[in-house]
Amino acid sequence: MSVMTDVLVQAVGISRTFGHGRTAHPALHPTDLEIGPGTSLGVVGESGSGKSTLSRLLVGLDTPSSGRVEFEGRNVVELLSTQTGRADFRRAVQFVGQDTTSTFDPLRTLRDAVLQPVLRLTGHRGAAANRLVDETLERLGLDPALGDRKPAQVSGGQRQRFSLARGLVVQPQVLVCDEVVSALDVSVQGRILNLVKDLCAEQGTGLVFVSHGLPATAFVARDLVVMQSGRIVERGTSEQLLSAPEHPYTQSLLAAYSRGKRVQETS
Amino acid sequence: MDSVEPVLEVEDLSITYGTGTAAVQDVSFTIGRGERVALVGESGSGKTTLGLAVAGFLTVPGVRIEARTLKVHGADVATSSNSRLPVRTDGVAMVFQDAMTSLDSVWSIGSQLAAVLSNGRKRSRGGIAELSRDWLRRVGLTDTERVLKAKPYELSGGMRQRVMIALALCSEPKLLVADEPTSALDASLARTTMELLLELTSTVGTSLLIVSHDMELCAEFSDRVLVMHRGLMVDQAPSNALDAPERHPYTRGLLECIPTLDKARLHHLPTLDEATIASWTTEKASA
Amino acid sequence: MSTLTEGTIPTQGGGAPLVITSGPNVLQRNRWWILRVLVLPVHILVFTVLSFIMVRSMPGDPVLNLLGQNYTPEGYAELQTQLGLDGSLWNQFQNYLGQLLTLDLGNSIATGRPVLTELSERLPQTLELAGLGLFFAVVASTVAALFAVLRPANVVSRAVRVYARTAGALPEYVVAIAALFFCYAVLHVVPAPVGRLDPALPPPTTVTGFPLLDTVLQGYWQATASMLGHLVLPVVVMVIAHSALLTRMLLAGLDEAVDNPQTRFRIASGAKRSAVVVSMLRRAAPPAVTTTGTLFGYLLGGAVVIESLFGLSGLGGYAVDAVSSSDVMAMQGFLLVIATLSLLVFLAVDLVNMSVDPRRRPGLGGSSS
Questions:
Q1: What average pLDDT does chain C have?
Q2: Residue percentage of chain A with pLDDT more than 70
Q3: What is the C-alpha to C-alpha distance for residues C17 and A184, in angstroms, rounded to an integer?
Q4: Which residues of C touch A228 (CB under 8 A)?
Q5: Which chain B positions have a beta carbon within 8 Å of A186's beta carbon?
Q6: How far off is chain B from A262, nearest CA to CA, in Å?
Q7: What is the DSSP letter of B237?
Q8: Does A228 lie at the interface with C, CB-CB under 8 angstroms?
């Protein structure tokens, strides 16, 4: 696995258990992970694997039951309790999730939603802020006129692109995406996957891409971790895992997708 | 195709919600006995609307259904009714994407099975109980006594799925419409579910209409694929020849877009944009 | 905890094992209703304190009421002791509580008879009236709501919806007076509102205390017919005045149930139509069931008005008399009985709700997958 030069967020022995007593459910077993601007990591697993739990812990959207997450050496939980700490962290680490309906204010325009992080987290104001928003929207292939609409007035694919725009507009050092293409049509998925891959490469943003779709994740990310039942069962580059998977679970995942070859082989 | 009457006969079917544009426009196709057909398309293609209409769920006010022919096993399908509660087409059953939200949460599995098994045919309570257990076994559930007494929230996700299929098939319908049966599932579970659907429908002799956006998976588990885009049926193809040159460009374009393992090594994934699709679909292709 | 086994085909990875609450620990499983029942006496005690304070704070002196204009201080003190109204308020309360434990509600100041006896004579009459009102209100609402939802285009359905939205604003006495005016004064289709029974007929002997029931039990059919005739209008008035709320709740619940994916799948699987409607009702029932409880409360309160307007005997009349004669013992007894009744009704409503819909029981239910 490639060496991480710049570690921004470090997870040390983090685990997460939901519920207590008889109904306790360990969603994530103690796990270590390092991410930074040079990261290009895909996290693959089926539902219940703990991948979403892991991604939320990394960006401070949840608190670990044990272990700690550190941002530039500082504990994320403490960091998020102060306003400056929050601003510092969110400026550097952004999260984009699958849900685009409840994460947008239904009464505000989409453009406004993308502008907010700029005003809150950066020093840009007025014309400079607007220019930043315009550039990001353009890069994501979004017609500026769409920005004047409300979230309910655009398609799912467009909303997801606005969601990504909101995450990328502050030019974070790391972008964590959780199931951002799963709910989209196949014809739209390719476009968004291409965009995510290109933009992160261009801006020098580290990427953590969480998804249950193995092919999409392997495409977008250089390195891959495979999760099962709350544990990481295999790590390596995408290339390694696709061509020579070692863990039986990884092999079974590949088997589930290998039908693709069959269809293409007809003449 | 044998000369036996087709299970589903559709000719020039159009469906419109309210006063807007048609969700389904001039669609024609048939499904024969024992055939497995996939109805594939992206969001807005009208595939779900078509599936619902065939099953009889669009007889509610506000929906206009017009067709030259719309028959299941020779009998006309209702296109409207004065009751707010839809009447399902005789001989057609339907399963939906999520078993958790579909199964009645306050009744036991046994009572839900009994409600179906006692409909129409006169059966004794013992007969119904025996049949219920039989159907649960057929869908791969072994602890039948417990399942019969259980409520849906007491079962695991996989078991709920099987119960849903058992409920749909126990009335021995001629046609089963499956609306996005694998959309919420992981890849391996999706395959398992499709295998189960296929196996069960063939033993009961039910034809299968799968409505899905997963063209690849459908192609593997069906005889024919019907491709829809914006209400039009642009292609009808045998499943093993989806990328043949005589196929509609939209079909081949969609196929190319699907992220597969070999495409993972590409620098960029192939994409489809609206303008290109529009130029293709102006020449309506039908089988 | 036992788990249900699955067929040979593997399940999705990482799911939590599911739970079936079979077998042991009956106490745990029934915890939901046991606790509710146990907490009832506590509520009654709290209400006793509150009602005592309220009643004793009311203006009016029962001793003076009985004595009249001319009295001597000694005569006053003597009567006061006789009635048990001497001593500090706290002492009086203690005495009262002590009496309650032996189910003695004291004696009415106006009549001298035990309050409990007087109440138990009248309670069944009011209960019967309110009960009849409730029963027919439930039946009428359910039928109307079902029809309105299943046949939306029908003109009757639209009328039902308008009624549900507006009729709740009409107070009982308005409906009662209007009904009496049209049906009695103008059309003469109902008997005069001077009680339950035609004055020419002797009353039935008391078996259960419920007047209509007693006539049936004795086979006293003439009286039954007469009572039914006298009760038609009061019941109709109660139904009209109170069904609106219930109909509204049922309409809302059923409207939702029709579009519910569960109803849709029931139909899609080929369930009998009757099973589909029953399952819709069951799902729509919980808020309506709670409303029924509240409704019973309104009906009990409205019984005072109905009983006065139609000349029917019952608790309502008793309470009115007690207030005008400052009969504190009777008032306290009345309040306590009504409160206990209401609490019992609310308990019954909760238990029915929780048994109809297991998801509402605290502790049980919940999914895992």
A1: 81
A2: 95
A3: 31
A4: 13-14
A5: 42, 213, 215, 254, 257-259
A6: 9
A7: E
A8: yes
Q: Is residue C100 within a helix (H) or strand (E), and if so which, with residue range?
A: helix C89-101
Tell which residue, C139, C166, C171, has the closest CA to residue C241. Answer: C171
C245: its two tokens: 């709320």
Q: Which long-range contacts (CB under 8 A, 24 or more apart) does C359-363 make?
A: C359/B105, C359/B106, C359/B153, C360/C286, C361/C32, C362/C31, C362/C32, C363/C28, C363/C31, C363/C32
> How does strand B175-179 pair with strand B207-212?
parallel
Contacts of C366 in chain A (CB under 8 A): 23
Mode of pairing for the β-strands spanning B232-238 and B175-179? unpaired
Q: How far is CA A38 from the centre of its chain?
A: 15
What type of residue sits at position C267?
I
Check: CB of residue C256 under 8 Å from CB of residue C153. Answer: no
CA distance A253 to chain C (A): 11
Q: What angle do CA B105, B110, B111 make, to 5 degrees?
A: 65
Residue C6 falls in which region: left (phi positive, over 0), alpha (psi -120 to 50) or beta: beta
Q: What is the pLDDT of residues C135-155, one digit of tens each?
A: 999 999 999 999 999 888 889
The interaxial angle of helices C328-356 and C31-38, nearest 10 deg, is 170
CATH annotation of A9-266: 3.40.50.300
- Give the pLDDT mean for C342-360: 78
pTM for this structure? Answer: 0.77
Write down the residue that tokens 């390596």 correspond to. A236
Average pLDDT over residues B182-201: 85
Q: Please identify among residues 166-205 of chain B the ones whose CB lies closer than 8 Å to any CB of chain A.
A: 186-191
Helix axes of C89-101 and C40-56: crossing angle, nearest 10 degrees: 140
Cα separation of B144 and C4, whole Å? 9
Those residues whose C-beta lies under 8 Å from the C-beta of residue C4, and which sit 6 or more positions away, are B141, B143, B146, B147, B150, B155, B156, B159, C18, C20
Residue B142 CB contacts under 8 Å (≥ 6 apart), including other chains: C5, C6, C7
pLDDT for the residue C15: 37
> Cβ distance B56 to B92 under 8 Å?
yes
C-alpha span between C284 and C277 (Å, rounded):
10
CB contact under 8 A, B259 and A219: yes
Chains with 3 or more CB pairs closer than 8 angstroms to A? B, C
Tell me the per-residue pLDDT of B226-273, one tens digit each, with 9 for 90 and over. Answer: 999 989 999 999 988 887 888 888 888 888 888 888 888 888 888 887
Asked if the C-beta of B122 comes within 8 angstroms of chain C's C-beta atoms, the answer is no
Residue B174 is which amino acid? K
Question: SS3 for B22?
Answer: strand
B78 contacts in C (CB within 8 Å)? none
* Partners of residue A188 in chain B, C-beta under 8 Å: 42
Q: Do C13 and A46 touch (CB under 8 A)?
A: yes
Across the interface, which of A22, A23, A229 has its CB nearest the CB of C13? A229
Give CA–CA dist C309/C195, Å, rounded. 9
